[in-house]
Predict the structure.
Amino acid sequence: MRKNIYLLFILIANIVCAQNKELLYDFTDLPQSLLLNPAADVKMNKHLGVPFLSQIHANVGSSGVSIYDVFADDGRSVNEKIEEALANLSSHDYFTVNQQLDILNFGWRADNDIYYSGGIYQELDVIGYFPKDLAVLAYRGNRDFEGVPFRLSDISATAELMSVFHFGYNKKVNRNLRFGARLKIYSSIFNARSTRNRGTFTTIETPNGNNIYQHIISGADVRLQTAGYASLRDIESEDDVDGGKQVTKKFINRALLGGNLGLGVDVGFTYDIEEQWRVTGSVTDLGMIFYTKDVETYKAIGDYVFEGLQAPIQSEEDVNDVLDELEEAVSYDTIHNSYAAFRPMKLNGSLKYSFNRYSSGNCDCYLDGEDAPYTDAIGGQVFMQFRPQRPQFALSLFYYKRLSKYLKAKVNYTIDDLSYYNVGLILSTHIKKFNFYISANNLLDYSNLAKSNGAAVQLGFNIIM
Amino acid sequence: MNKKTIFIRLLLLVISLTTMSCVKDVDFDQTDEIVLTPVFEADFIYSKINTEDIIDIPTNTVIPVVRDTIAFDLLSTDVATENLERIELFFDFENTIERNIDFTFIFTGSDFAPLHSFTVTANMGTNATPVETEETEIFDQNLINTLSNATKIITEMRVANTTGSLQGELEVKSKATYFVRYEL
């Protein structure tokens, strides 16, 4: 248990970041910007991502509390700090993990100037909201909370592991407007979700009742939907190695369109208001997955009032059994109905002003054939992602600079749920056809990640022509 | 500083930031000190006993013992025995019957062999004014361990064989307070 906690915090400490890829958005020197806006104004003629290495992205974020808040070496009791954190956290605070791995990424410019791109990536997306009421119940019990309802709706979490097959195009519609779209086929490897739960648990004092209290479960409707779990649970193997092989085989099969399938689209635009002003926008992951295979839903629904055991009852045959009564009142079932779920849709937008027009002899900033006339740009970005409880937002200011034809950079300052002082930097090197990029955000917290609620690292290798 | 130098330094900066970032001023050994100490309260038994419940009508005599059995395996799990520090059973009697009434609770295994028992008494009341009696029974960790095999509680109610009136009512309310101590 303790090792797991260490691992969890080490993981948080090393790959914490926001879900938002603000540094990569509209960074058109990289083909990966097409995954955030299919209409990104990329200038390359062809690209090929190095398989499995063209985009490695991982993020873990925790709103409301940092490692330092709980484990600060400040002489105070850890239990006191947990109490404080518990008081500060709300049921809107969340813990999130998002990881993406580009398996294949390619693109080319056709004769009609349309840029086609496609590929396969794997994604893990987990979000769990802090179940405040239940955490308080577990940490402090119910004795000091007479009449206070503990809300079962605080249970809200989703987890998805899947592969995505995608293909898109990017076309200049007229002198000012560029449009792009991408079709996605999702192949879910594993899904679990428990959202929209309802009901309360309350202990009330009853001076005129049968007993001192009534413990009331009211309107309980709690569900956990799973797809891809039941068959894993049923794997019977005598040794771990064999069991692991069976799980891997199933995962690979599901990743290659053998899982629960879904369909989605990304659409976007780039519009040049005038020569130096540009506005962009995109909607990504507008789609849903239909879970029809290997589906199991666990649900508990009902109402129950407990006021103790009536005794003595003048019949020696009668035996009070609270658990039997509870099971009868709040029925627990396992069902196998199919379900569908929306992907967490994301909206991105930006407004950019370019300046410092390039003139030959001034700097050596462009590869032959490039027509970008400016070396610098500033602007703002917005990001929104739909999540089970409420959307997440981020606002960024950025400064883009082409330092040379070998090196492009962008700095972002971002405000989001996790931080009000998130500064990020992306660097992209272009040496002949070989490209390497690396980005990190929340740089101000890197001197001590324990105090950070988020930070990010993303890197990749491409061949760009 | 030439461009190549700037490039190399910037690249090194990002790589070092992302790979050599550190976590400091924290002490993960504090995990050893994390203790959860919630206190849960739950109703235990209740009853409203009228004189009809304790008198054998045909013979008009007091029934010596009224007995009942409650299924009880709350302490049978390791989670309970390892993490329950103390249990307090609180009884609140309101009695208008002019007799002392004893309640005996016998914890038994599935074979009905007694593991532990205790008796609490509702003091005799008066027909006009209810007399309130409060009693608390405490189970410490040793006793909780002893009761890990308990599956039933036999409740026995005895009415004192005195000459007081058998009019009135006895109201029993009770709750259990569970003091948990869970160390990570």
